[in-house]
Amino acid sequence: MVDEYGVLEYGQVFIQYTPMYEENINDEPRSREDPKILKNCLVAITKNPCHHPGDIRTFNAIDHLKLRHLKDVVVFPKKGPRPHPNEISGSDLDGDEYAVIWHEDLVPDTPNYEAYMYDSQKDLPEHTGEITREDINKVVLDIAEQDYLGRLSNLHLAYVDLLGVHHETCKELAGVISKEVDSGKTGIHPKSEAEIKELAKGLNNQRPDFMENKNMKSYVSSYILGKLYRASCRSISGWNRLLSYYRHLKHLHISTPDDEDEQSLPIEKHKRETDIDPLLLHENYQQHIEKAKKFFFVYKQELLEILSLYHLQHETDLFCRGLKQNDIEDSAQCEFQQLIDRTRHGIYLYIIEICPSPKCSLDDYCDSCLDHYRAFSSACYYHCYQEANKTSARRTQILSFPWIFSAYLVDVKLENLRGEEKSSTNRIFGTAMSNTLQKLIDERRLKLEVNIDNGLALALLNKKNSGIRSSNCQRLYYKIDWKIIVFIEIIHNWLNRHQKILSKDIQDTENEISPKPLVSYECWNTILIKFINPTSSTINLNLNELSVGFQQKSSPLNDIYYGYISSLSDEWNNNENFTKQMFDIFHQFLDICFEHSLETKDNSFAYLSEYIILFLQQIAIQKEFKY
């Protein structure tokens, strides 16, 4: 909206937003936050469509007393040579929605590009005489038939990747798209079908890889969209394999050309069953199992009769119905609701019978009744899912039964979450790391050069002696926590031996467009030095002079090192606190990668961060590392 008070100068905006409210899954007390004002910070503002380089603009967000009653809107100044909204994709404040970004890493630090002149279009054609129904139909059909906007946007995307966003062809095309957006109102299409085809010829039937156009020749894009696309491709395979474990998440599956290959993997043969969530099990659920079996048997038989009578394929057809309903669907829904009501009433009679209080009723439960309800719903959940796992035919797998008491199941889960002292994520991560360490010990794959005369001290080699034999190099022994030693061993083995992404010789140009970019040993060493020598350390290690020592061959000291680590590994398995510490170490390591990537603007560190995240993804998939 416009600053009607005239307190904002050209280039300033006022923004007061209401933080989004989300309830915490752990049911922890959480109050709604008060609206926040962006004060004295640089913000980037844009809106769709955003094709011209001037469509995203930076402003100074300020606070002003006269504007504080305005919330969840962008207040633009009325001063200046041209309205700011018009500079942003030709906006006219008719209900437009803007994207506002103020994170300092995402706000451009370059001057605003000259905005496109969006008001330079031709005069609208005049209509003489009365507007008839035929005129209206003609306009509606013209809008429906013309698929120009999507085609022009795709051409712009391809041209930008080929020529750059500042090229005249791309800027002109951005203006054309803006006019095409308004064609429904103006009746004017800036480009004809023939002109669009001629424009497409300039791309020589080529498209960047991230557009995934199977009808065109594909080339590897060297720009940010190409890099993000290939990074996504590197994680999609693992993501889809993770989803394959959980049938209720299969709608999140991402289709790829390699889907057929993924489906042939043997990884999920033993995971066709639906896992039972232990957090949904009440401590007394076993007391109600026999009664739950009887109720479930009746519910299942009657539900299958409804499905058969009304020719429905699955129980989900009773829950998920389209807006277009008919008498048959209404009848099925009515019978299903009656079944639910009968089941709930029968269970109410069962609970009242075992309740010690004579005062309980359908509308007023005592604490004992509520606890019985929760335990019984948990028993229904357990038995229902156990039976489903024994049934191969999808149609007869009935999973809806326990969820007619969903409120009680939610109570059970929340109560179990409150009582759970250890994070399952920490346990999975810690267990995977422990198992992998044992494999490295068994296979004699520990590589770090370590001195154990007085605890564990990591060998750091002087880079100036790089031409000298390793045995003769000057060494600095740096005392370090054994858990960090173990973490480095596992990560190094995974990156170097399994992923094979560490390399001495990297061609930057080729590496940037590679499906799997390599990371230099120099980059890896820099992160390791920063990791073992945090800023809080009293000893300052020079990144440019030292490198972490890795052994190429075994030595007599290795046996002592292996024995030392093996004994500590046994201690780890008996101390659950180590799992949390190991997960914290992972986060520290990842933070260092991110921070150094931002500091140096070197993509090698960004790639390393990505591989570390894939490292965590594999744990989620297989609960261990595969070498």
UniProtKB/TrEMBL annotation:
Any one GO BP annotation for this protein: siRNA processing
Annotated EC: 2.7.7.48
GO cellular component: nuclear RNA-directed RNA polymerase complex
Classification via Pfam families: RdRP (PF05183), RdRP_head (PF26253)
Keyword Transferase: yes
InterPro entries to which the protein is assigned, alphabetical: RDRP, RDRP_C_head, RDRP_core
Catalytic activity, as annotated: RNA(n) + a ribonucleoside 5'-triphosphate = RNA(n+1) + diphosphate
Keyword Nucleotidyltransferase: yes
Molecular functions (GO terms): RNA binding; RNA-directed RNA polymerase activity
The organism's place on the tree of life at top rank: Eukaryota
Residues in RDRP C-terminal head domain copies: 284-423
UniProt KW keywords: Nucleotidyltransferase, RNA-binding, RNA-directed RNA polymerase, RNA-mediated gene silencing, Transferase
Residue span, RDRP core domain: 2-231
Similarity comment text for this entry: Belongs to the RdRP family.
Protein name in UniProt: RNA-dependent RNA polymerase
Lineage: Eukaryota, Metazoa, Spiralia, Gnathifera, Rotifera
